[in-house]
Amino acid sequence: MAPPAAPVAPARTASPTLHFLRAASTFVLDILTGRSALSPLVPFVLFFLDAVLSGLVIWKIPYTEIDWVAYMEQVGQFLSGERDYLQIAGGTGPLVYPAGHVYVYTVLHKVTAEGQNIFLAQIVFAALYLVALAVAMACYWKAGAPPYVFPLLVLSKRLHSIYMLRCFNDGIAALCLWVAVLCFQGRHWSLGMLVYAWGLGTKMSLLLALPAVGVVLLFGCGFWRALRLAMVLVVVQLAIAIPFALENARGYFGRAFELSRQFYFRWTVNWRFVGEELFLSAPFALGLLAVHVALLVLFLSTRWLRPAGVCSPASLFSRIVMPIATTCASPFSQSEEALLSARAVSPQFVLTTILTANLLGLLTARSLHYQFYAYLAWTTPFLLWRSGVHPVLQYGIWAVQEWAWNVFPSTPISSGAVVAAMTVTAGLVWWGAREEYAPALPAKKQESKKQG
Predict the structure, then answer these.
(1) Residue ranges, the chain, pLDDT below 70
(2) Residue range 361-370, pLDDT digits in tens
(3) In angstroms, how far apart are the furthest CA atoms of the chain?
(4) How far is CA 374 from the centre of its chain?
(5) Could you give the residue ranges of the DSSP H alpha helices within 80-222?
(6) Which residues does 140 contact at the CB level (< 8 Å), separation at least 6?
(7) 182 Cβ contact list (under 8 Å, min separation 6)
(8) Contact 400/417 with Cβ under 8 angstroms?
(9) How many degrees, rounded to 5, is the angle at CA 298 between CA 295 and CA 304?
(10) 3-state SS string over 172-201?
């Protein structure tokens, strides 16, 4: 006779609390990953919260004077009739920005009672910050970034400081860059170039994005129109320079676009760990320039120009450089230009390419000061997402970067973290961001060109 079967324990049912937690986590996860109808509300909620935070920053945190008084002194000399750039200076040194900076701060000089109403200036810069945030969010959304990336756009302590507690011109230049990107995403090429040109005329830091802007325009509107838009960029710089160039053209262009400027070691955020002797040396500056050029060639030949069939430095030379150099004409036929414009130039392509070029320029810059974070803060989150790494790693790299930029004064460890975060981001985006760089031209045509 078989032994009686052991009694079967009744199945445990999950508690209502556990059910609620599971449902809540699924609900939140769906929102953050873009699978919920509520996902589009995330940027609006974050924007509102950041607007409140911006008001609290102005109200509660004391303003710190760095360059505002110098800007106002320089503008005062301009308004008094001085047009020789070499003679315009403020408490922190000579005027070293293009004429767009002078015109923008002339308006601020008038609005803020010759710079005396700092509170009003802070309100103006808070508004500029919020406009820039809204535009950056729009660029992210058009490029398909999921909602979980957006909190990183509003969490930067340093970025709030740059706009609202310092009133730096970098915030204005960065705003122009983001507006230009949004225009390019919407295929408003002329308007985008005008805005970009004005930003460049405010601070030459926007030169870092120029190689990618050139690629976007070449693919988006064709060689000849891109060439005309490049001329617009030059004409805008010449036009805003007229009052100063008529007085001393050499002095203006030498001072406003000074590429050989010597930087002070005590202010560097990124190269503290190399030591002052190496930092000030000519070989170090030339080495950084060489690395920058090498990185641009790498990304041009293996990523940015891949839609046109370029896959190596050799093909970059044969497919793009040689046809332009030898014939002064487009390297593409009309049908190829149409295909590239239709298939390659997506909002994601525009944003990934321009932000990557910006990152490479910052990575190899001779010296970054704290205000340069205006160009980096909203670059890193998108590129980390496009790299395809896990969101936890995205947030981790961002946190390291944010910490490093808030160490004052910088230390060898913090500056090493600044460079490491940018290096890792550049490497990850090169490896992971490939979807937007899929070939757009027919493979058979590419092969026939190679054989010919």
Answers:
(1) 1-14, 19-20, 260, 443-452
(2) 999 999 999 9
(3) 115
(4) 8
(5) 99-111, 118-142, 157-160, 169-185, 189-202, 210-221
(6) 43, 149, 150, 153, 351, 382
(7) 135, 138, 139, 142, 192
(8) yes
(9) 110
(10) HHHHHHHHHHHHHHCCCHHHHHHHHHHHHH
Give me the residue label for tokens 């295909």.
339
Structure tokens at 167: 């009133």
Q: Are 335 and 350 in contact (CB under 8 A)?
A: no
C-alpha 155/C-alpha 56 separation (Å) is 14
CA distance readout (Å), 118 to 53, 65, 164, 165, 172:
19, 10, 10, 10, 17
Using the CB atoms, write b or e for 212-224: b if 16+ within 10 Å. bbbbbbbbbbbbe
**3-state SS record for 234-290:** HHHHHHHHHHHHHHHHHHHHHHHCCCCCCCCHHHCCCCHHHCHHHHCCHHHHHHHHH
Record the tokens describing residue 1, joined without a space: 């006779």
Q: Which residue shows structure tokens 């769906």? A: 30
Which tens digit of pLDDT belongs to each residue from 424-452? 999 999 999 999 999 998 865 444 444 43
**Which residue in this structure is represented by tokens 């990953």?**
33
The token pair at 230 is 């490049």
Distance between CA 164 and CA 12 in Å, rounded? 56
